Structure formats: structure tokens, C-alpha cells
């Protein structure tokens, strides 16, 4: 049986930038590599070393702690990495190549503005499943992986979205109701978004329990795959064909004051109202948050892109003969794939292994 151990040795994440830094400007984009740290851990350590406020640093997305990850951060000012050559005199100061054994800077490039949350296309992943599996078990895994690539993965939020104790959504509900205060804007935004994520996950569960995730229901808010534009389905029969062709995809709610909602008295609206009620909130609660929580829509299915040789079986056995034996049990399977921004590799792994990671 093969299992997944989320660690830097078995899990690599690399951010796919929405755009490259321009090479000019008043900010510096840092391409960092970290091990066993959250994105906020990395930001705090760099900010403390450079004597800048963490809020002045930018990031496009949060990366897993229990992994080897590479991502962009931005800092105000022009900096060069100490080991960088050929750029003397173009920066205001230098920064260390390493901020500890678990955090290094691979590149530093100027850019006109701060990096903003969401400014990424997605992430590349390399996942190593370890243990022992027969040839038949590996073939079954390969078949399931190919099916997930073909049909997509349920786009739910992974457990890490809800904090180490799993209580971020409950804290977000307390904030939304005014029962809790949080001065740290980043922390407040994180907790409120966890509550939105809990609503979305519940809506996904309800869709799966009452039909296919990709089934178009009256009132569904659909997203155009090419442009990202949103519209309400008025003819599910026609739109179902568009879903089948990949032109559009149904979406679920990230509730807020300006979110596009299914019309009242439609099956899609009733399902989403049920999901909101399941977390202990109402639409009015989210609407009162105003500009702080505008809301959004999220596709219910996630497209998986194979990177290179996407599924590689690594045979068990220490000798060359055993390693070359195609019938030998597998000691590991290596997966390489990419997901759009906001997608969780752990959700794909759970679907593949049919068990929680």
C-alpha cells in the first residue's frame, strides 16, 4: 500500500507566476525556497532581518509548511542578493543569500509595484507516494490518476485552509458576528476566508450528495473557462452541453456582499442557502461585512495538467536486476502535475488514494 507523507522530502511546490518581474522599479521580487515554514514564517523572518514591516511585503499565495516550496515575495526598495554577480551599483542594498538553512533567496529582481494576493497562475507539484504496492495496485492508481486528469478533481479546500486545529472557520464566524476582534488585518482576512471556504466545501458536499458535481441545476452560476466571466444558467439542458465540451463550469459560493448569487426560488439558491446555514451564518451576515468581504465564485471542478512524465513507478529492490523488473513491487510512485491558483494538491492525492492525507 502506498501512502503520502507531507514533508520536504516527499512534497515539492513551485509557484507559477502570473507575470515575470520587469527588471525595473521601486520594489524587489524575491524568488525564495523554504522548507518546513509557512509563507508568513518566511515573511516574518525576512522582514525582521531587513528591518521592514511585514505588511509592506507582498505575496501571491500561501504555500504549504510541510513541503519544499518555491514562491515569489516582494519587498520595498531595490536589493541584490549578496552572491549575485554583475549587478553592482544598481541596488540600494544587498540581502543575504540565506535567512537560515531552511530559507534561501534564489533570485532578486526589481519590479514597479508590490506583489498582490492572487497574482499567480497556479502551482506545480511533485508528490512522492511511498510504501509498497503490487503491479496491479500501481496500475489501478495510474488508471485513477488518468481519470482525474480527464474529468477534473473536486475543487474543495484542503484541511490546511482551516488551521492546525481546524478552528479557523469558527473564528471567522465569530469575527463576522462581531463576537471577536482581530487587529491583524492579514489574520482577520485569513479567518474570514476560512469561513467562506467552509461554505464552499459544504456546498460541494451537497452537490455531490444530490447529483453529479458537473450537473447544471436551474439558477446555477456558471463560469466561462476561457474568460472567467460569470452568468446565471437559464437553460440547464443547453448549458449542460457547454459543460461537457469544457466551455463552462458550474461554480460554488464564497459568500460576500457583492457575490453573484443564484436567483431566489431556484434549486441552486436553496442548496447554497443550506450550505451557508450549515456553518451557522446567513447571507445577511456576509453582506454586512461590506467591502471587507466582497465574495466570489469558485469552480466546483479543478483542471489537472500533467507535468512531463506525470506518473512514474519506482520499483522496489536494491539490485539492478530487481530495479529493472517490471513485475517487482513498487516502493514509490512519483507524481508531477500542475493545478490552477487556489487548487490543493492534497485534495487530488486524497481522491487518488481514496483516503484522507
Instruction: Indicate the CATH architecture of the largest domain.
Output: 2-Layer Sandwich
| Mean pLDDT level | 91
Inertia-based shape: globular
- In the predicted model, the low-confidence regions spanning at least 5 consecutive residues are 317-323
> For this structure, what is the CATH class of the largest domain?
Alpha Beta
Kindly estimate the percentage of residues that lie in beta strands according to DSSP: 25-35%
N→C terminal distance? 14 Å
SSE sequence, one letter per element: EEEHEEEEEEHEHHEEHEHHEEEHEH
CATH homologous superfamily heading of the largest domain: TruD, insertion domain
Multimer state: single chain
The count of helical stretches stands at 9
Q: Specify the structural class.
A: alpha+beta
Record field, number of beta strands: 17
Overall structural domain count: 3
**What can be said about the biggest beta sheet?**
9 strands, mixed
Q: Round the Cα radius of gyration to an integer and report it.
A: 22 Å
- Stated plainly, the CATH topology of the largest domain is called Pseudouridine synthase
How much helical structure, as a percent, in the residues?
A: 25-40%
Description:
This protein is α+β, with helices and mostly antiparallel strands. It has three domains: 19-118, Pseudouridine synthase, CATH 3.30.2350; 121-152 and 303-353, Alpha-Beta Plaits (2-Layer Sandwich), CATH 3.30.70; 158-301, TruD, insertion domain (Pseudouridine synthase, 2-Layer Sandwich), CATH 3.30.2340.10. The radius of gyration is 22 Å and the shape is globular. Strands 1, 2, 3, 4, 5, 8, 9, 16 and 17 form a nine-stranded mixed β-sheet that branches. Strands 12-11-13-14 form a four-stranded antiparallel β-sheet. Residues 317-323 have low confidence and may be disordered. The two termini are 14 Å apart. Helix 3 (168-176) crosses helix 4 and helix 4 packs across helix 6. It contains nine helices and 17 strands. A hairpin with an 8-residue loop joins strand 4 and strand 5.
Amino acid at each position: 500500500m502506498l501512502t503520502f507523507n507531507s514533508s520536504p522530502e516527499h512534497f515539492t511546490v513551485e509557484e507559477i507566476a502570473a507575470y515575470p518581474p520587469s527588471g525595473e522599479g521601486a520594489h524587489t521580487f524575491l524568488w525564495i525556497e523554504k522548507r518546513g515554514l509557512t509563507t508568513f514564517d518566511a515573511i516574518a523572518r525576512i522582514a525582521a532581518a531587513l528591518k521592514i514591516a511585514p505588511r509592506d511585503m507582498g505575496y501571491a499565495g500561501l504555500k504549504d509548511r510541510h513541503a519544499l516550496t518555491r514562491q515569489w515575495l516582494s519587498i520595498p526598495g531595490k536589493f541584490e542578493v549578496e552572491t549575485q554577480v554583475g549587478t553592482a551599483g544598481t541596488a540600494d542594498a544587498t540581502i543575504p543569500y540565506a535567512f537560515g538553512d531552511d530559507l534561501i533567496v534564489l533570485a532578486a529582481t526589481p519590479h514597479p509595484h508590490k506583489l498582490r494576493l492572487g497574482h499567480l497562475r497556479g502551482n506545480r507539484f511533485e508528490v512522492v507516494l511511498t510504501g509498497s504496492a503490487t503491479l496491479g495496485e500501481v496500475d489501478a492508481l495510474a488508471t485513477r490518476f488518468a481519470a482525474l486528469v480527464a474529468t477534473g478533481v473536486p475543487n474543495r479546500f484542503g484541511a490546511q485552509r482551516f488551521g492546525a486545529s481546524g478552528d479557523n472557520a469558527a473564528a471567522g464566524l465569530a469575527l463576522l458576528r462581531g463576537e471577536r476582534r482581530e487587529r491583524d488585518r492579514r489574520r482577520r482576512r485569513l479567518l474570514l476566508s476560512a469561513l467562506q471556504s467552509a461554505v464552499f466545501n459544504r456546498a460541494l458536499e451537497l452537490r455531490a450528495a444530490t447529483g453529479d458535481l458537473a450537473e447544471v441545476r436551474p439558477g446555477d452560476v456558471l463560469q466561462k473557462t476561457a474568460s472567467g466571466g460569470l452568468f446565471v444558467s437559464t437553460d440547464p439542458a443547453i448549458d449542460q452541453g457547454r459543460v461537457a465540451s469544457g466551455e463552462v463550469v458550474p461554480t460554488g459560493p464564497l459568500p460576500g456582499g457583492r457575490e453573484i448569487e443564484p436567483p431566489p426560488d431556484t434549486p441552486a439558491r436553496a442548496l447554497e442557502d443550506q450550505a451557508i446555514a450549515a456553518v451557522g451564518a446567513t447571507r445577511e451576515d456576509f453582506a454586512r461585512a461590506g467591502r471587507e468581504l466582497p465574495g466570489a465564485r469558485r469552480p466546483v471542478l479543478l483542471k489537472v495538467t500533467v507535468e512531463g512524465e506525470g506518473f512514474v513507478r519506482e520499483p522496489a529492490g536494491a539490485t539492478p536486476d530487481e530495479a529493472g523488473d517490471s513485475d517487482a513491487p513498487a516502493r514509490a510512485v512519483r507524481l508531477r502535475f500542475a493545478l490552477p491558483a487556489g487548487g490543493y494538491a492534497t485534495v487530488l492525492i486524497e481522491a487518488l488514494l481514496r483516503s484522507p492525507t
